């Protein structure tokens, strides 16, 4: 008999409104994704994600970076608490901090981030503005495994959209957000199903090394041509 648990234990890190976390919560409630939330952690006491977690009965944690002497001390404390939560997967859903390599190392391959650009383009902030300023015709979002390099770990999957003439920074961000939600839910579902893994810096999908990120198309993730 398999000893594999039914539900993957997930902790979420979020600094802001929490719409990506809300999408995961909804997917779990609908029975689409076999996960259990063990913690939502934030560096901001007023993060919307915390209020969402509380109303869903998910334990929360706030650590204020100003209470720690430096980034390393904060990150070691935060990641210590994440380990204590029993999480098997950490999801960065709008967590707007760079993480110390020492805190991160034990989680490599078990921690993902959603970023609003077609990585490796536009790591860091203001991704929508930078795509518009560059005259790009296409924009999108990526989910990647987290490494010590900012927005730099191996990309698991992406969703693409065409930039329209009417798009300004806000309109583009608004149009991308629902696509981000679908992308993140699909990736977490495939991790929970045991389909995705990181081996030697390479994303494995169904036991096969991916040459390019998976693409989210209409109703699911597909292997890119
Ligand atoms: C999302 O757009 C996410 O891609 C971005 O922050 C937003 C959080 O929204 N993350 C990053 O920029 C990380 N580099 P949410 O709080 O509504 O999920």
Write the layout of secondary structure elements.
Elements: E1 8-13, H1 19-29, E2 35-42, H2 48-55, E3 60-62, H3 71-84, E4 89-92, H4 101-104, E5 111-115, H5 127-133, E6 138-145, E7 155-162, H6 169-192, E8 196-199, E9 202-205, E10 208-209, E11 214-217, E12 220-222
Parallel strand pairs: 1-2, 1-4, 2-3, 4-5, 7-11
Antiparallel strand pairs: 5-6, 6-7, 8-9, 9-10, 11-12
Helix pairs in contact: 1-6
Walkthrough of the structure:
By secondary structure, this protein is α/β, with parallel strands linked by helices. It has one domain (8-219): Formyl transferase, N-terminal domain (Rossmann fold), CATH 3.40.50.170. It is built from six helices and twelve strands. Helix 1 (19-29) runs parallel beside helix 6 (169-192). The radius of gyration is 17 Å and the shape is globular. The N and C termini lie far apart (37 Å). It binds glycinamide ribonucleotide.
């Amino acid at each position: 008999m398999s000893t594999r648990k039914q539900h993957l234990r997930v902790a979420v890190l979020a600094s802001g409104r929490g719409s990506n976390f809300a999408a995961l919560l909804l997917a779990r409630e609908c029975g689409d994704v076999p996960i259990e939330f063990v913690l939502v952690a934030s560096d901001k006491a007023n993060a919307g994600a915390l209020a969402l977690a509380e109303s869903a009965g998910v334990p929360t944690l706030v650590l204020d970076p100003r209470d720690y002497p430096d980034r390393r001390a904060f990150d070691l404390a935060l990641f210590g608490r994440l380990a204590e939560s029993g999480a098997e997967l950490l999801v960065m859903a709008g967590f707007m901090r760079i993480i110390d390599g020492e805190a991160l190392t034990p989680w490599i391959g078990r921690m993902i981030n959603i970023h609003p650009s077609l990585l490796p383009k536009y790591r860091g902030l203001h991704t929508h503005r930078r795509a518009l300023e560059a005259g790009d015709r296409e924009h999108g979002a990526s989910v990647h495994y987290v490494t010590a390099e900012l927005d730099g770990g191996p990309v698991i999957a992406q969703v693409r959209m065409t930039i329209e003439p009417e798009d300004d920074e806000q309109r583009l961000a608004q149009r991308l957000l629902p696509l981000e939600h679908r992308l993140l839910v699909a990736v977490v579902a495939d991790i929970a199903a045991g389909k995705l893994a990181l081996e030697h810096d390479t994303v494995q999908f169904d036991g096969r090394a991916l040459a390019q990120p998976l693409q989210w198309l209409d109703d699911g993730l597909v292997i890119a041509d």
